[in-house]
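pinging the channel bc i need a second pair of eyes. not urgent but kinda urgent?? the chain im working w is below, pasted from the shared doc
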Amino acid sequence: MQRLIKMIFIDGYCMVHKFLDNIYWKYQYDYLGALLGGMSLLEDNGTADPAYERDWDIAVGKAFDESRAHNYTPELAYKAAIIFLESWLETGSDEDIRKVCDGMKKGKFTDLWNDSIENFGKPYLMLNGDNS
């Protein structure tokens, strides 16, 4: 079970990061740039901003509890992403994040999500410890 949760954290998180990055570049939602910076993964697979890791863990747990399949799927990561963004909306209002969250619920970004599933990679802030 622990291995499954770790796979959801890393793979699902990377899919969601790629997805939000795709939205950022396509729609130029400014706040997503700041969000993506904090979401970047470090070499130890921790997030650049530790709050993102905690919030993602909570979102994955809620999505997993709500899932009937109780196994890893990209759909589970997508649901966790909505929960993750909703939690950020609860702490403050940001129109860009609201647009993304509402669009996800309506299936607006299906093409970008499908691309993210096929082409996700680890969103390293520092690649291989190279700080230069």
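so The two ends are 38 Å apart (CA to CA). and The chain has one domain: 2-127. — does that match what u expected or am i reading it wrong
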